[in-house]
Amino acid sequence: MTDFLDQKRAEITKRLHELKPLVDEFQRLEAAVAALAGLTSASASAADATAPVRRGPGRPRGSRTTKRAAVATTRRKAKATSTPSAAGTAAAAAPSTAPRSTGRRPGRRRGSGARAAQTLELVQAQPKGITIPELASKMGIKQNYLYRVLPGLQKEGKVRKSGRTWYAKAA
Q1: Which among 83, 94, 159 has a CA at the least distance from the CA of 121?
Q2: Which of 14, 47, 95, 138 is the most exposed place for a label (fewest CB within 10 A)?
């Protein structure tokens, strides 16, 4: 009886080894079909001018990709030139005093906030340089915020980056 069971177990194991590459290929093909289905539905919605503009996952409110931002700007211009509704007549008819040349909404300059000042102060206190994880732990915040603040300070010429380390620029 044990010989029979050992023989059947060996047969099953052999067949499993034969089928494993086919199962792997099946899973890869299934994933490819799902990915292609997602791409075609995404491109179809992007082509539709009446589809609402949505920000990507993990992106802050008000941010859009450049392609979507261009579509949104076109929609805003189209709304402004069309006949305003009764509810928005006064708002639509009043001329805008804010300059719109940058395409961004008005607000404070990047890198001019309290966190940017605190970050700059900590970078200046470390003449040998400091990394983003070290800064985040000293400030008690998450690292992802600093990945937005430090490039803004770099553009302003206040810090420089070498590898993963940030240094204060000489004043």
Answers
A1: 159
A2: 95
